[in-house]
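Tutorial handout. Part one gives the primary structure; part two gives the three-dimensional structure as tokens.
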Amino acid sequence: SGGQTDFPTSFDFCVQGDIPINPEPHNFYLINDYLFIGPVPLHFQFSLDGSFGVDIGVKLCFLSMKASAVANPNLALILTGSAAISLFIFEAGINIVGKLMDTHLPTTASIVFKKFPLQVSTHIDLDLIPLTISLHVYCKLTIHLFFTTIRKTLFDKDIFSWSAPAIKVTLLDISNANEDKSPPQFSSISSPAANTTRRRRAVTAGVTPCTVTQVAGRDYTNPAFILQISVADDKSQVELSYSVGTYKGGDDLVKDDRMSGTTVLISKPLQSGIPLYWTAKASNSQGIGSSSQCSLPDYDTTPPLGRVKFDYKYSSNPSLLVGDSVVLDYTPLKDQYYAIGYGRAMVGDQVIPFTQFKFDHEASVTNQAHTLSDFYNTPDQRLGLTPYKTTTGGTIEDCVGECAKFPVDCFSFNYAKVLKTCEILPEIAGASNIQLQESNEFDYYDRKGIGSQKAFNQSNLKLVHNELYFLNVYVTNTLLYESYLNSEGILIDFTPPEPGKIANVSLDQFIAAGCNAAFNQRCVDVTPDNNSRIVVDGIGSDCVFNGPSISSEIRYTRLNSFVSVTYFGFHDNESGIYADAWYMGYALCGD
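Part two.
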């Protein structure tokens, strides 16, 4: 609802004094006599009275700059009649009271000296009640004893009351206030609102009557902005308010919140990732208003997000680590550091301490992606993140088109080929520590060319066998939001897989095979060390067998189109078995 405010209710400092002049009664006529009806005395009384008084008050308010004085004369005529009888210890009576011309004349004079010329006003009202009648009866018990008197009221009540309608008339209302028919005037300002802010991709060049900046140095969960306007009115006071919307002139986020001045700092969470539009409104004492607009391309309420990863989970290279990072943020990045160590985030800098770097490539978060070639594909993987939107029944190209509809909310997507399910995702793998998961149904796709990218290639390291290392990146943006991004650990493994039980070994040799260890090996950053093992075993081994069964080796066969081999016991305690292959030839170790 409109009219809310981020500021406390305004207060005023006032001094007030009252000088009451109590009504002075005056009797004009009085009859007081007794009349006997047989043995019973009847006491009756009749009187006509009048009263006059004045209440005077003075009030001075310093903040609202207003002085006022009130005089309230009041007068009335009162006609009273009563009759009472006394019989032994009992007394009963009836009273009738009529109040004539109960009149008040409240008179107010005020001066407002906020603007010149001074605003002076005089106001006089007439409050008149022509006639008021009330009827009252009572019955009392009185017993006189030697040592005391006992009095008891048996009945005492108003049994009738009536008043004529009040008459209220304004006798005088004089004011020298001039009507202000012109709206407040906005003027241009050219300086930033405060040194504590960073103007973020200003929308309008040069001077403008309205500027808005997001405040730097605050926590991203408690963002704030400074709204500055320049407006004045030469005749009356100006009431200020503002609205915020997702479109020009809109108020769907904030509606008519009050401003305490022309420059205000307001802490308020708003929608992030899209342009926002502020409308500042000013109205004079006549309710005539004007407005001015300004905007931000985005109102950032999230820290820098992204992904940091090594190129592989395991490595046998003793001196080389290779990885990369992608950082996403709507606000320009300020500083960035990387480190390698045994832990995550700030505690992971034992191998390489935090070192400042520059990104190899920087691209806008909002770069469009319209075709499948604009995405990286990671098969049989799914990012376990709540989707921004889910569709079913479409092709992979339909999923790409759906992603293109949300350039600031679709950074990646999961797609299931069989189920034809498309999950639009607002982050990429690694952001917010959300990692890819193995999946038999989904493939994962993330957009190319978004964010700020950096490739890391660290050589001449002294890595330790069976140790886990992490790549950590620390980034800040111009709002001083900060984030630690870290990779999954990479395990260093200098030893080849172990065979099963072997006996009568004729050859057990370690060599640097490079990319020639096997046809299906991963030939990326291969270790120069002797990390490949060749074993020639003999009789008594339980490792490799001709034929389809373990421990039963076939030495002869009549089949010339079919061979089989069984091997058992190969294992790797550090990184596990990636792939295996077997060969057959005419010579020992031949293929």
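Part three, for discussion. The mean pLDDT is 83. The longest strand covers residues 119-144.
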